[in-house]
């Protein structure tokens, strides 16, 4: 058997642009090269593809890749070709002539990778021989198992591959599979002795957040507006929801499209391609969308509805941040979704399993402890410390004695004779005068209006907590009415103390959003300029932008600023072919940016100097402003900067010591002391911006605090 070890790293750099392997990649690649069967469980974005794509370059023959969806294959093949790797796909959308040409290329050993859907395998029978096929990779392998979250019967025919190609290694890969699913995959593929590789499920770069589902559309619009130009996916349970959301987005000038099973193949394919090519910013989709898409610059995933299990949730959020840069996963949770998902599971052959998994998903959504710990523990992985990158860690719930609030809710449920759902209970507490309340004379109930001082949404927040703690329950089989439990009596009679968490107020939510949001990209930053260059190249070559270079590679270029081929080759994601094809354009753009920045800096230093010279001539602020055709406030900012830089400026002519002291005190108290507006608001708009800026320059220089 040939020794491939010396060729691994040169091939890794040349074709994929990486200097080193991640996690277990090298061991997996070596196992495949040694003709060993493997089962690889690796999170989305963890680098599964390299585990079979790199060996394909070193093994004689073609690696056959089983992929679940025809629409995804072109994306995969385009990515390989962009890296200089000969690849093709084989499916029913091709003509007989095209298919014959692919078979001939495989026969001649010209292809390194060939993608095929399970349904099209029969058409490959002439080449399903060990002299032509070097390896079989089964992607999205969880689809083979009825225990998995995305079972596809067409995958169950794949067991014949091991019988047909007994000496050919089979590598099965998926992002999510529990123990039962893993065992089922190996049994059905007839690879019982396959070595299992379980990578960490911890995607540290994805910030996790769960919110109550009220006013979802407004929350989502606000979320998107804070993230201009970022690609994202929104998952919904129904086709109607996807279309309703898209209509809202289009009304707000946001490029979006719906993707669901009700669309024909051509329409779905166009939505997918426009998203991959960055022509559409957002896709609102049912769960089928996104599987196998290698689009690395998806920055966020929103679940408009709660997923039916943690595996599906984990796989879907994993479609964001594949490049390792910060990403957001936002989930909206409602009991209506729970009820709908319970109905979906009802009558299924594995109903008990589906309901148990739904219950775990519900527990995750309602958690008041680190969400990542819960997520990882589901897959058998222990996280010692809280993650610090979920909403619970960033804003731990504040608990208080909520016994009286609990008694008000439970008493109202009892007085309504346990016949009404949460909404009516809250309406009664708040003294609502709608038909649903007045027609049944609920205004006569003793607890009517006793909760006017608490908002509707806050009452809902408290009611959900009481349900979670078991003090009341939803009777799903009785139109979702709220009922008491055996534990309710102890609360009503003061024997049990109830702790509730305070709801997150709007201003706190905005602050949390600000903290979680990565810094917005400046319009003329080097990253933005490289991103636009990448987009132009992608249009010219008709390939997705991220196949030129992904966001992480552009970010590294921005940080390192390579201006020669040798320096550019040191950047992760820049391989030999991409250096040859795109290198010069990116180097020229970086050089141009550097030159412009240098010129701008020189010009800026001149403008300060011009102000300083006029000031030293004894000109007043108004005279300098008039001569320089600038505003007086700008001249004051120049003087503040000149003073900070050590120039001879009589600063106390423009700001007195008492004012400096007040600004210094404000700096201690303000949450954001770097910006000027908080100071302006702190002084109730009575202190001019120019005075604040001058005072801060003194504080900074003389370290007054």
From TrEMBL:
Catalytic reaction(s) noted: Couples ATP hydrolysis with the unwinding of duplex DNA by translocating in the 3'-5' direction
In terms of InterPro entries, this protein maps to: DEAD/DEAH_box_helicase_dom, DNA_helicase_ATP-dep_RecQ, DNA_helicase_ATP-dep_RecQ_bac, Helicase_ATP-bd, Helicase_C-like, Helicase_HTH, HRDC-like_sf, HRDC_dom
Assigned keywords, A-Z? ATP-binding, DNA damage, DNA recombination, DNA repair, DNA-binding, Helicase, Hydrolase, Isomerase, Metal-binding, Nucleotide-binding, Zinc
The coenzyme or cofactor needed here is: Mg(2+); Zn(2+)
This entry's Gene Ontology molecular function terms read: DNA helicase activity; hydrolase activity
Root EC class: isomerase
In this protein, which residues make up the domain named Helicase ATP-binding?
A: 29-195
- Where do the HRDC domain residues begin and end? 520-600
Q: What EC number(s) does this enzyme carry? A: 5.6.2.4
Matching SMART domains, A to Z?
A: DEXDc (SM00487), HELICc (SM00490), HRDC (SM00341), RQC (SM00956)
User: What SUPFAM superfamilies is this protein classified in?
Assistant: HRDC-like, P-loop containing nucleoside triphosphate hydrolases, Winged helix' DNA-binding domain
Domain Helicase C-terminal: residue ranges: 216-369
Q: Short name of one Pfam family for this protein?
A: RQC
**Which Gene3D superfamilies does the record match to this protein?**
HRDC domain, P-loop containing nucleotide triphosphate hydrolases, Winged helix-like DNA-binding domain superfamily/Winged helix DNA-binding domain
UniProt-listed PANTHER family: ATP-DEPENDENT DNA HELICASE Q1, DNA HELICASE RECQ FAMILY MEMBER
Family indicated by similarity: Belongs to the helicase family. RecQ subfamily.
Q: What is this protein called?
A: DNA helicase RecQ
The species is Arenibacter arenosicollis
């Amino acid at each position: 058997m040939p020794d491939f070890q010396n060729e691994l790293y040169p091939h890794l750099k040349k074709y994929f642009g990486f200097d080193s392997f991640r996690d277990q990649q090298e061991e997996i690649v070596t196992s495949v090269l040694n003709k060993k069967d493997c089962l690889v469980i690796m999170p989305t974005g963890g680098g599964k593809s390299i585990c079979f794509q790199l060996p394909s370059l070193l093994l004689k023959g073609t690696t056959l890749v089983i992929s679940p969806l025809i629409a995804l294959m072109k994306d995969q093949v385009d990515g390989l070709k962009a890296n200089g790797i000969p690849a093709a796909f084989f499916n029913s959308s091709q003509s007989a002539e095209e298919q014959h040409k692919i078979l001939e290329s495989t026969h001649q050993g010209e292809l390194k990778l060939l993608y095929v859907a399970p349904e099209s395998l029969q058409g490959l029978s002439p080449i399903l021989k060990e002299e032509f096929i070097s390896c079989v990779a089964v992607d999205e392998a969880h689809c083979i198992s009825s225990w998995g979250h995305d079972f596809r019967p067409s995958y169950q025919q794949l067991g014949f591959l091991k019988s047909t190609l007994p000496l050919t290694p089979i590598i099965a890969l998926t992002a999510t599979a529990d123990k039962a699913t893993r065992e089922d995959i190996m049994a059905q593929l007839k690879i019982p002795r396959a070595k299992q590789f379980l990578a960490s499920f911890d995607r540290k770069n994805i910030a996790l957040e769960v919110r109550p589902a009220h006013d979802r559309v407004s929350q989502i619009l606000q979320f998107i507006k804070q993230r201009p130009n970022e690609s994202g996916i929104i998952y919904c349970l129904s086709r109607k929801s996807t279309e309703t959301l898209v209509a809202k987005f289009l009304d707000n000038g946001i490029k979006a499209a719906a993707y669901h099973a009700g669309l024909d193949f051509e329409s779905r394919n166009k939505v997918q391609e426009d998203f991959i090519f960055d022509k559409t910013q957002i896709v609102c989709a049912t769960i089928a969308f996104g599987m196998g898409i290698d689009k690395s610059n998806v920055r966020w995933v929103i679940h408009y509805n709660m997923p039916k299990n943690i595996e599906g949730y984990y796989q879907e959020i994993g479609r964001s941040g594949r490049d390792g840069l910060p990403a957001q996963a936002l989930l909206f949770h409602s009991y209506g979704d729970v009820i709908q998902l319970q109905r979906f599971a009802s009558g299924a052959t594995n109903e008990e399993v589906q309901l148990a998994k739904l219950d775990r998903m519900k527990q995750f959504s309602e958690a008041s402890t680190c969400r990542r710990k819960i997520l990882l523990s589901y897959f058998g992985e222990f996280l010692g410390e809280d993650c610090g990158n979920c909403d619970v860690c960033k804003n731990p719930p504040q608990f208080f004695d909520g016994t009286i609030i609990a008694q008000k809710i439970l008493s109202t449920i009892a007085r309504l004779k346990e016949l009404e759902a949460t909404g009516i209970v809250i309406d009664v507490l708040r003294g609502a005068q709608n038909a649903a309340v007045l027609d049944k004379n609920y205004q006569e109930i003793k607890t009517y209006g006793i909760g006017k001082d608490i908002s509707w949404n806050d009452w809902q927040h408290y009611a959900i907590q009481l349900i979670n703690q078991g003090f009341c329950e939803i009777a799903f089989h009785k139109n979702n009415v709220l009922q008491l439990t055996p534990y309710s009596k102890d609360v009503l009679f003061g024997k049990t103390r109830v702790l509730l968490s305070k709801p997150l107020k709007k201003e706190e939510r905005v602050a949390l959003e600000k903290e979680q949001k990565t810094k917005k990209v400046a319009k003329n930053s080097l990253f933005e300029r490289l991103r636009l260059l990448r987009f132009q190249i992608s249009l010219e070559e008709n390939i997705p932008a991220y196949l030129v270079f992904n966001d992480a590679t552009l970010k590294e270029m921005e940080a390192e600023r390579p201006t020669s081929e040798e320096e550019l080759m040191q950047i992760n994601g820049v391989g030999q072919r991409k250096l040859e094809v795109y290198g010069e354009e990116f180097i020229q753009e970086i050089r141009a940016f550097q030159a412009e920045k240098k010129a701008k800096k020189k010009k800026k230093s001149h403008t300060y100097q011009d102000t300083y010279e006029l000031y030293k001539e004894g000109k007043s602020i108004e005279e300098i402003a008039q001569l320089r055709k600038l505003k007086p406030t700008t001249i004051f900012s120049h003087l503040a900067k000149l003073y900070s830089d050590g120039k001879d400026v009589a600063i106390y002519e423009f700001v007195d010591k008492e004012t400096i002291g007040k600004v210094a005190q404000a700096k201690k108290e303000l949450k954001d002391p770097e910006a000027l507006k908080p100071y302006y608001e702190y002084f109730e708009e009575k202190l001019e911006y120019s005075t604040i800026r001058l005072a801060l320059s003194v504080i900074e220089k003389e370290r007054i605090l």
